[in-house]
Amino acid sequence: MNRNLVNFKGLYGDNHQAFLSEFIHHETLEVRSKLYDWEITEHLHTDLIQIFIFSSGEGLLISEHKKIALNAPSILVIPTNTLHGFVFQSNICGDVITFTESFLENIFRNSPHILLELNHLKSFTFEPNREDFDEIQQINSQIIKEISGQNFEKQLYLQSLFQLLFLKLYRIGMQDNIQISKSDNRTLAYFQSFQKNIKKSLHESKSMHDYAKELNITAVHLNRICQTLVKKSALQIVHEYLIGEAKKYLKNTTHSIAEISYFLDFKDPAYFTRLFKKQTGFSPSEFRKK
């Protein structure tokens, strides 16, 4: 029995294309949207991050059954493993930049707090003050030019441009938040490693002690890290990730609820159903029908 979801490793409509770790791609928003009559059905990318830069027009983002209005000028950051779809008006104009998760991780290897902040679905709006958007557009234009060119040290130059782009977005996103000090880097690194280990261990039965042991810390320390950064216990974070995976199975496969619960290493389908309803407000069968 196939325990995997539909393969979403490529760009929309190009599922079977494989990418190198330093893959970067640019296209105008209209190119792919026109092919699908301005409607992109909900999907996800397992290894790719996307930035949508909307310079004019409007549309609608659909994610996890929620609808978010997109009005230019605006920017949308979609991390890996995030369900998303669109309904665009035909007057929408902009750019889509796609790159691998490992590319971004290499750029901010020594700044885990930036990676943590950017590892969420984020929408940035820029009216009435367009100064920040105009600055980002300048960086975007340089990125597009560099991607299509064949200059010396192209990859290094692109890394610098992406670093500027994401630092700008990070600053905008953090304007109303408390800044995380550099002294917290080790805590953030532990948290990110924990998140990666959850993904790697999706079909394994692991206790919080097992996860903590992989990080060479105690379960109490791991729990404290999670509470400090996201106000949740380590177990809550594991459960949220599992429920997120369950949603993808329910939406994109015909596997039974019992099968999905076993895929995700729940020994008791009834417990899986109770946990799913507690997290989402719906039973798995209600979610699938909805």
From TrEMBL:
It comes from the Bacteria. SUPFAM superfamilies: Homeodomain-like, Regulatory protein AraC. InterPro entries: Homeodomain-like_sf, HTH-like, HTH_AraC, RmlC-like_jellyroll, Tscrpt_reg_AraC-type_HTH. Residues 192-290 form the HTH araC/xylS-type domain. It holds the Pfam family HTH_18. Keywords: DNA-binding, Transcription, Transcription regulation. The keyword DNA-binding applies. The keyword Lipid metabolism does not apply. This is HTH-type transcriptional activator RhaR. The lineage of its organism: Bacteria, Pseudomonadati, Bacteroidota, Cytophagia, Cytophagales. The gene is rhaR_2.
